[in-house]
Amino acid sequence: MAAAMETVESLVAHIQALTKPEDVAQLHSLLKQSQSDEALRSQGPHLAPLLADLDPAKHSLGYLYLLDTYLYSSISREQVAAFLPSIARFLNTCSAYHIRFASDKFISVCRCFKDQVMRQQTPIQGIIPLRSAVQKLQNSSEQLTTLHSDFLLLCLLAKCYKPSLCILENDIFEAENPKDLFLFYYYGGMIYIGLKRFSKALECLHNVFTSPMANLNAIAIEAYKKYILVSLIHSGQVPPFPKYTSATAQRNLKNYAQAYLDLTTAYATGKHSEIEACIQQHIEKFQSDNNLGLVKQVLSSLSKRNIQRLTQTYLTLSLQDISNSVQLNGSKESELHVLHMIQDGEIHATINQKDGMVIFHEDPEEYKTCQMVNQMDLSIQRLMSLSKKLTAIDEHISCDPAYLTKIGRERTRYEFDDFDSVPPKYL
Amino acid sequence: MASSSSSGITFKLHPLVIVNISDHYTRLKAQTLHSGESSSCAPPSNGGTAGSAPPAPPRVFGCVIGVQRGRTVEIFNSFELLFDSKTHTLDRAFLEKKQELYKKVFPTFYILGWYSTGSDVEEADMLIHRSLMDINENPIYVLLNPAIIHSQKDLPISIYETELHVIDGNPQLIFVKSSYNIETVEAERISVDHVAHLKPSDGGSAATQLAAHLTGIHSAIKMLNSRVRVLHQYLVAMQRGEIPLDNSLLRQVLSLLRRLPAIESEKFQDEFLMEFNDTLLMTYLAMFTNCTGTMNDVVEKFNIAYDRHSRRGGRTAFI
Q1: Taking every annotated instance into account, which residue ranges of this chain make up the domain PCI (chain A) (predicted)?
Q2: Which residues of B are less than 8 Å from A412 in CB distance?
Q3: CATH class of residue range A314-360
């Protein structure tokens, strides 16, 4: 027992000594060695005071190892709860360079942290530490880690959407685990729905069910259901499956979302009564999927869409006529609707209250400001970098053996004697 | 033989004449070169060693027509004539026929003289000149020098008149050179501009025209930029004292600067930004299309490579 304690203390001494960046590799091997050594693990519950000695910013790697051992040893929930502030401090102040040596340990520490925070029903506590953890773990802003989905889950539970935006806004180009990707985009879609940014929500949910998958999974099904509802709210129709959706998704998704597809057909008729009847019919299904709120929003979006259709036919219209054609109750309600839409920027109009007329305008954007120049410049730069990436992927796939084999097989059928595009070794 | 003219007549030359003569010459040269290559086996060599000498560039002949008002002679147009090299005379009947036809279309134009190509006036030219004297008492001779000399900046065109000079006791006609001006009508300016830019033959499509237009603007701005930079460096050096002050140059720079900014009104800003944004939007659209095309290729290849149940027997993607 005393010997074990000694080894632990010597280890701590080592950690405190080897702080220079060149020594980190050495420290790492030392720690890995001690990990397999039973001594450290047996001392698990007693590591708390030692951790207090170490500085999480300077001794991040050592702190991480000890912390991990501590949390997964046989300690009680209250002890973990008591330790939460220290974990939070560690996550906020640790050095990214150190923890990348032991990323799996880091992930497990964060997982434990998240579980505890959720158990305590105070998810908001975990948001800032987890966000800094995510930013430290990823190699670049385009990489997806396991922590991303945990972080978004906490934000959703706490209903605190703003902190997640900086993580959500990055385009993801690398992901290690497909489940992470699905969860990330599903939660991301839900956050955007909460923020009422429906176009971005559509993008995220779209990414979930169009990802390559060999077998259907529950996340994709749920995402598809929400996708139908959000696209009805946003654009009034559900677009067909794009070319890059996997065959499994294309064939099987519709079977699980029948109620929603009925809603789509009812929406297409444009009558309130039809849609309400459809909702009543499937109401238990909607409720069990927790989508009833979205469904109600679909209903209210119908009047918006009808008013927008009116802008294409009329230049001016009286409020009474609007309420008649859109099936609202009275001119007051239609005035309210039009006012909201003007405020949200969905239509351009002026309400003349004296004679109750609404005058519809064209889009006043004339594209002659410097801000527009900057905006377009940014978009063009983004497109250029995206285009470069796409060309690189294109070249990569062209050299892929799987692709070449399939191409070679199809080519031989046509018997091009003089044009052998695929070397025979791939066939 | 040629000295400067003292007749006091001003000549105005239209660019159409220049283009006509040069076109005539180029056509004939291309034809003889082509026929020369097919008949002779050795390729024409420059500055002849043993072997066939390069075929001499043919001389072309034609008539110039225009209007003479008082002391101003304005040469508007020209047409080609057949030259009989054996008798060294121009084909008279042909000339008269042509003259009649042109008189119907341009009643005010007279035959003012004739043209030819070459580096200098030759003896034989006097014969042709005299033969034209019965149509016009004082014909003019337009000479185009087809040799391309890069250092020479002026047009290789010279206009000759004849004067009666007493040489060695004999009154003789000699050619004297006259100065001339180039006169253009709007329509001529546009056509010359068009020819000078030499757009590609299928340049009717908007894309190539836009690209050519933008390239032109780009090179113009690049040149302006480099010149401004040179001036700037010069001024900085002057400020530092490395170069002695030159007040006249400084005054010129000051007058140049006073001319800027040319327009500063809000209306100009609006128009300018709108056009700028339009070009940006076009670039954006082009990039979008490009990107979408690449994306489509990637998706196709991905589907073929990895999707287990891809379309069989369908069109294969282009590698």
Answers
A1: 197-365
A2: none
A3: mainly alpha
